[in-house]
Amino acid sequence: MENFYGIIAKRTGLTVKEVRYLWPEEFEDLVIGGNSINRDYLKAKMSSCLAVSSFPSLKPYYLEAEADEIVEKVLKIITPRTGTLIKGMVTYSGVLKGKVRVINSFDDVKDVQKGEIIVTHMTSPRYMAAIINCGAIITDEGGTTCHAAIISRELQKPCIVGTKIVTKLLYTGDYVEFDGNLGVVKILEKAMDVIKGIVAYKGVVSGKVRLIHSYGDVGKLVAGEILVANMTSPRYMVAISKCGGIITDEGGMTCHAAIISRELKKPCVVGTKNATHVLKDGDLVELDGNSGIIKIIDK
Prior knowledge:
This protein has helices spanning 2-12, 16-20, 24-31, 39-47, 64-78, 128-133, 147-155, 166-169, 237-242, 256-264, 275-278, and strands spanning 49-51, 61-63, 85-87, 89-92, 95-103, 117-120, 136-139, 159-161, 175-179, 184-189, 194-196, 198-201, 204-212, 226-229, 245-248, 268-270, 284-288, 293-298. The protein is of the alpha/beta class.
């Protein structure tokens, strides 16, 4: 594809990056119809754009501030609340209520308590100690022949697989109703919010949360607020320079947030997986950059 984009770029006078940002119909108009593309329009698109599928009430494409606004609305829609239903495929039936234990890696297996409901992207043989203790299993991925499905039938553990988003919506301590007959999980009660991640730069700081979903949110951050994002980028530097600390969903010790936090000496915890889903603008939190724990002090 890179060679193909390069050929099109040479023929049209665009850069390879600009070619990549063409919508399908724009690409067709350019290559087949011989129409030109406005460079200012492409610049705006590369700054921020959004394509929408399967929402009849929305336009198919958005740019810049309008794109940022729609993204923010969608993120609010999928933020978990009490009563939220999560659906998947039943691989072993059963109904129960219990507390969630999210397993992001083998390191979390030892924390599973007897009867807890395991929530994970997908199980593996390394998780067997946790699976034996658990009351039920819920996964993002998989079907009737995946590891979670097979082991649930062997051990007669109620199991729902293929939810796509459960690890984004549930976190350790949530109290849920698991219906392994209908393939539905219902959030009954949200846990006392303690979020864990990887320490990128040490330090303890308290402050109000400012969610940065996109570049359009950067100007909203007030000096001293705690920046919370899926991941930072160079475009967020104005906000990063003013913030009291940084929390991200993704990343490790070499991600952008980790590197810039060390350079600017900002307390930082990365790789929490769910901070942007649990925290909301204005929440008062304590970011403990020594332990990698974020506590919600006041909502």
